[in-house]
């Protein structure tokens, strides 16, 4: 019996290896913050967690995985759109192994940023540590698949990078330290420099296909609108302006990296305008969203949901809406699963054009 089983196992692994090595996009690998965080913070001592209800209510099985959402994130949908698995696991989740990570993994950590000082605020995983985990992942992948196949997986993977929001929302606009050191334009330059060095670092490790996602209209997040004392519930234009300026600088840096690094393709995924339209004119997306946030004060999942996120958003939070699909935001910062799907559907054709 053993003689029959072992060749079968070997044959299955050969098929998996061939599939990985021949795929145009072999895996989806995510770096960044809560927009790509699938649960790594569950395994570190931090308050920046969401592995409890009502998070995960619309996730398969209704399980709160640590995603800051009612369901799946846009990298999950992107992975599925490339014919890979529909759920990208968290690297630190002990229920998964390298066989699961071979076609996709997230190193993301909620509340982190480009700036190490941002990660320090809630003691989460800084970007440099995400890179260290990625190096560890490569070692495991080579042991699992062999050097040649693993190297192909690494070079053919799509690297989704979504980070920078917390540098502005949690750090620069909330605390005095960086404001005393930088003007907002200087801080943008500081962050873009870190972003450039990060890309060069993972490029040196074999990454070749990257999608860098823009900042969203930060001033229109419910938590930011709640702080707009002078013009209640309207967007904070100062924050939106900072996001737009940062996006322009990041886009220019992406063009420079594409020119300077042979074999590298970085796609600048600009989601700012799409989210702004969803937030300010949801009725134009009537087949997606039933209610305008102006009618309900906020288009978060909670009617009073202007500040709730992480531990402040829990099963005891009142007025959680019965259908999150009608709302752009799930909590005071994070988009709903439906919004994530819209963003993924918008990005997928362009990603396929770039990388297939």
Automatic annotation (TrEMBL):
Identify the domain of life. Answer: Eukaryota
Keywords tagged on the record: Signal
Signal peptide positions (record): 1-23
State the SUPFAM superfamilies in the record.
SGNH hydrolase
Q: InterPro entries annotated for this entry?
A: GDSL, GDSL_lipolytic_enzyme, SGNH_hydro_sf, SGNH_plant_lipase-like
Gene3D superfamilies tied to this protein: SGNH hydrolase
Q: Which Pfam families match?
A: Lipase_GDSL
Report the family membership: Belongs to the 'GDSL' lipolytic enzyme family.
Protein name per the record: GDSL esterase/lipase
Q: Which organism is it from?
A: Hibiscus sabdariffa (roselle)
From which lineage does this chain's organism come? Eukaryota, Viridiplantae, Streptophyta, Embryophyta, Tracheophyta
């Amino acid at each position: 019996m053993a003689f029959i089983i072992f060749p079968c196992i070997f044959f299955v692994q050969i098929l998996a290896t061939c599939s990985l090595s021949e795929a145009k996009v072999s895996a989806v690998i995510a770096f960044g913050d809560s927009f790509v965080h699938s649960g790594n913070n569950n395994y570190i001592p931090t308050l920046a967690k969401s592995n409890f209800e009502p998070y995960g209510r619309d996730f398969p099985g209704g399980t709160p995985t640590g995603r800051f959402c009612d369901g799946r994130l846009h990298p999950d949908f992107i992975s599925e759109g490339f014919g890979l698995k529909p759920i990208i696991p968290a690297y630190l989740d002990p229920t998964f192994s390298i066989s699961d990570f071979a076609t996709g993994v997230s190193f993301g950590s909620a509340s982190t940023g480009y700036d190490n000082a941002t990660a320090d605020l809630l003691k989460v995983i800084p970007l440099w540590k995400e890179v260290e985990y990625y190096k560890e992942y490569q070692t495991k992948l080579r042991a699992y698949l062999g050097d040649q196949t693993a190297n192909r997986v690494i070079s053919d993977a799509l690297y989704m990078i979504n980070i920078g929001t917390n540098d502005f929302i949690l750090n620069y606009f909330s605390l005095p330290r960086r404001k005393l050191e930088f003007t907002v334009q200087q801080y943008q330059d500081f962050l873009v420099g870190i972003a450039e060095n990060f890309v060069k670092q993972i490029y040196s490790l074999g990454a070749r296909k990257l999608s860098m996602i823009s900042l969203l209209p930060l001033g229109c997040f419910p938590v930011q609108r709640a702080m707009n004392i002078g013009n209640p519930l309207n967007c904070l234009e100062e924050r939106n302006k900072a996001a737009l300026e940062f996006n322009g600088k990041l886009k220019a840096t992406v063009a420079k990296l594409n020119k300077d690094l042979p074999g590298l393709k970085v796609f600048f995924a600009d989601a700012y305008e799409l989210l702004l339209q969803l937030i300010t004119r949801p009725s134009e997306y009537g087949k997606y969203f039933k209610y305008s946030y102006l009618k309900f004060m906020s288009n978060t999942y909670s009617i009073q949901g202007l500040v709730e996120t992480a531990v402040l958003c829990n099963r005891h939070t009142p007025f959680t809406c019965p259908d999150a699909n009608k709302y752009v935001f799930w909590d005071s910062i994070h988009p709903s699963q439906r919004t994530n799907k819209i963003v993924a559907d918008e990005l997928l054709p362009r990603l396929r054009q770039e990388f297939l």
